[in-house]
Design goal:
Shape: globular
Strand content: 15-25%
Largest sheet: 7 strands, mixed
Distance between the termini: 56 Å
Oligomer: single chain
């Protein structure tokens, strides 16, 4: 320890790092730990307009995976454009992820809601790696029936039997039981591993779930109903974003341009074909640059970004485009049928010692950082959220349906410590200082049901023809009776869990339920529960999907066909969460990587015969 503290007092060369502090001395130690030397990505020269075989717009979860797969064909040249910068080193620490949300590494899209009227925030990574670089890393695929529903809706080639191999292709699963199950891959670039640490409360919660009748299962395997300490996209306690997994190796035929914001897709209007994109580069502020595509432009800018860019380029609802004076190229229902699973953080528990996970002294924080260096300890996890459970509501059971409720765990710290992000990395712009809670240190636990496959929809639209203006997002949470019923059942399940003997024996006690706007209803009445879940419902926690929906020719609401080609134009595809035709029962991370893998195969099928791949 003395040698380590001595090293902290020496002058250090500046290193790219966003620092998380609890408090100042912990800040210093955190900087020492996370500021490891790393290979800097060489800056792509910006010599003006350029030409490539493929132009991929958006270097997030889908874009990094897709660009890598396309660049595996040495004959093809690929350009990947990303509006943000590199992933900072501090993002590798799983427990620090809340400090990145709401920062300038996050688009922080604002969604307006009604009943109640308020603003919800939809996180979206604004950096290479996208949301895979700032989120909780939980690797959840959803239910096999979700993908069979896609196939049954006319999306040929998207059934579970078709996409399972694509999930496996990207994965590198390390635990033995998963390897031998037949549902996981071992040779892919993306490490999918159990987090190396669980605190005592995770084990207590497992016991409580077991007492409630849930079995321990692989929720990404044969059976989703049950509980699991889920896999995360990490290796040995350090986050591995899709960027780190897929773009570690430099490829001479792949050009990555950072801080390059695409403002529109360029078309040959007579041929109705995409020929490239126009973007604003951080190197040449104020001077639009063009990148031309010999073969295709592929949008991977996410649910909000891809929809906004299509509309700005003349592809979208005629009514919206005419309102802002944008010439119409193709009238499609872009930005509609967006789904975002609401989380209901209503049931909270207070933790007394020894259940409370807060170090008694500053030395405890130091020891945890030393453990992190060794690949263990609480900083190697996103906290108790690594444990999830999937259950069925009474309606799902009556119809022999799949689990429609997920139980998610999060934490709070009632005794607030000073936890901030302090920035000295050009990848985290100056002034990016925000309070954040480190989820592995907590004295309160929140058990939140998540309504899977919601019926309520959101919409992404424009509020200006200015490509730099934020989009208009209107969201509805629990606007459908079935969503409300599932939320209430999930909240009641969480309350029973909170009052279980297993949790009480470990020092976890439920806090009183106070929802001010529902005080006119008798407590525990059905109207009170319906009011309460609506009052606290939160969006943006598990990743929205849809807006550029995939569908067959008979689907008038579809934006892309089952080969991900935008309808009515040539040379343009979309390959991200926006193409999801109906929501999956989980977060979006694993599904988006699979979509990128699928798109790469579709592109090869179309062009390889011509190019002799």
């Amino acid at each position: 320890m003395e040698a380590l503290l001595a090293a902290l007092t020496r002058d250090q060369d500046p290193a790219p790092v966003c620092n998380v502090t609890v408090p100042l001395l912990y800040y210093t130690l955190a900087r020492y730990v996370v500021a490891r030397a790393r290979r800097a990505r060489p800056a792509a020269p910006d010599a003006g307009d350029s030409r490539h075989d493929f132009v991929v717009v958006g270097g997030g979860t889908a874009g990094c995976a897709l660009a890598r797969r396309l660049a595996e064909q040495p004959r093809w040249t690929v350009l990947l454009l990303e509006a943000g910068g590199e992933e900072p080193e501090v993002a590798a620490v799983p427990a620090f992820h809340p400090a990145l949300l709401g920062s300038e590494l996050d688009w922080s899209h604002r969604a307006a809601t009604e009943a109640p009227a308020r603003e919800q925030v939809w996180p979206a990574g604004r950096l290479l790696g996208g949301t895979s670089a700032i989120g909780r890393m939980l690797y959840l695929r959803g239910n096999s029936r979700d993908y069979d529903d896609w196939r049954n809706a006319g999306n040929v080639g998207w059934g579970y039997g078709d996409v399972l191999d694509l999930f496996k292709k990207s994965e590198s699963v390390s635990d033995y039981l998963a390897q031998v199950s037949g549902f996981h891959g071992t040779d892919g670039p993306l490490p999918v591993q159990k987090f190396p640490y669980e605190d005592a409360n995770v084990k207590t919660l497992e016991a409580a779930f077991t007492a409630a009748g849930l079995q321990y299962v692989d929720v990404n395997g044969e059976t989703q109903e049950g509980m699991m300490r889920v896999h995360g996209t990490q290796r040995n306690g350090r986050r591995t974003s899709v960027c780190r997994a897929f773009l570690q190796k430099d490829r001479p035929n792949l050009t990555v341009k950072l801080r390059s914001r695409v403002t529109k897709v360029l078309f040959n209007t007579e041929a109705r074909q995409a020929i490239g994109v126009e973007y604003i580069s951080g190197v040449n502020i104020g001077r639009p640059v063009r990148a031309y595509a010999n073969k295709e432009v592929i949008l991977t800018a996410g649910v909000v970004g891809s929809a906004q860019l299509l509309m700005l380029s003349g592809v979208g609802p005629n009514e919206t485009l005419s309102k802002f004076g944008i010439p119409l190229l193709q009238d499609l229902k872009v930005g509609q049928s967006v789904y975002d699973a609401p989380e209901i953080p209503l049931i909270k528990l207070n933790l007394t010692r020894p259940a409370a996970q807060v170090p008694d002294q500053l030395q405890g924080y130091f020891l945890d950082l030393i453990k992190y260096v060794k690949g263990t300890g609480p900083l190697t996890t996103p906290g108790p959220s690594q444990l999830v459970a999937f259950v069925r509501s009474s309606l799902a059971k009556a119809t022999d349906d799949v689990p429609d409720i997920m139980l998610s765990l999060s934490t709070e710290l009632a005794a607030k410590d000073a936890v901030t992000v302090s920035t000295d990395d050009p990848n985290c712009p100056a002034g990016n200082n925000s309070a954040a809670h480190i989820p592995c240190y907590y004295d309160r636990l929140v058990v939140s049901p998540v309504v899977l496959r919601p019926r309520s929809k959101a919409e992404v639209s424009l509020q200006s023809a200015d490509p730099l203006a934020p989009p208009a997002i209107r969201a509805s949470y629990l606007g459908h009776a079935r969503d409300v019923a599932a939320a209430v059942e999930g909240a009641r399940f969480a309350l029973r869990l909170a009052g279980s003997r297993e949790l009480a024996a470990a020092g976890l006690a439920p806090l009183p339920l106070h929802v001010g706007r529902c005080r006119d209803w008798p407590r525990d009445s059905e109207p009170w529960w319906r009011c309460a879940v609506r009052a606290v419902a939160q969006g943006g926690r598990w990743g929205a999907v849809g807006g550029c929906r995939m569908g067959p020719a008979s689907d008038r609401g579809a934006v892309v066909d089952p080969r991900l080609r935008v309808r009515g134009v040539k040379g343009l595809r979309v390959a991200d969460a926006s193409v999801v035709p109906s929501p999956v029962g989980a977060g979006a991370l694993a599904t988006v990587v699979m979509i990128a893998e699928k798109c790469a195969l579709l592109v090869r099928d179309e062009w390889c015969e011509e190019d002799v791949c």
